[in-house]
Amino acid sequence: MGSDSLDCTAMSLPESWHAEAFNPVPESENRIHSDETAKAYGFRGGLVPGVVVSAYLLHPAAVAWGREWVERGQAHVVVQSPVYDGETFRVEVEAATETAYEASLIDERGTRCATAKVSRPTKIPEAPVRRHDSFLSRDTERPVASLAVMERFIETGLHALPALWSKQAEITNYLRDPNEMAPIYHKENLANPAFMLGLTNWVMGRNVRMSPWLHLQTDSQNHRAVTSGTRLVVEAAISDLFEKKGHKFVDVDVGVFQESDDEAVASIRLRAIYELRSP
Fold this sequence. Notes:
CATH class: Alpha Beta
CATH superfamily: Hotdog Thioesterase
Number of strands: 10
Order of helices and strands: EHHHEEEEHEHHEEEE
Radius of gyration: 18 Å
Number of helices: 6
Largest sheet: 10 strands, antiparallel
CATH topology: Thiol Ester Dehydrase, Chain A
Oligomer: single chain
């Protein structure tokens, strides 16, 4: 939208919903999504990606607010426990208004696996500006993640990632049947949160080898809808590194830009465990 004013006319309230969890990337380079590696770390099986879990919590916003959400939505999502492919879940929406709600994702065992605070802000925060970071060649050898490597990236910066929103993207659906996604996604073929938040994972994965690793949290702001065939540029910078309970964490600030005009389409802060403690 061209205006910062918020149109609240004809908006419905976000509602609770339920579905079957879907792991679209069991063969991902991040082997935490595979049964064998995940079980070695004490999980029941391959984990549904954190970006897909996040999409489940943001689904009520896309259904209720449509394009208004896609163009200006804001969310804070925390993934606390694993979600597994094929298991049912429910998203419980609380304190819903025409501009905001809170939600929890509950699995079939009654575990609260993730939470979110979601809104359509009355004024969109200032969008990031593209720095024109250099791209990394696909044949460049990536270093294995370590504290020293991550500290070096703080000094040198990360390389940018080119991306394309199309049916050939790595994650195009957050549900097994794409027709069950929010209408704004499956009818208009706009980029959905699983893809958009997934860009934070992929830009890190293009710079450093991390496997297995866990996507834990995102703070995201939408600035523009991403239509089919849009070429994107993803820029990222590490903002913090810390260790807790033997896990090594990284915070990354990510800007996603439309290649054609350098305009921001999303700004996201990712928190991830880039190195899990030994199983």
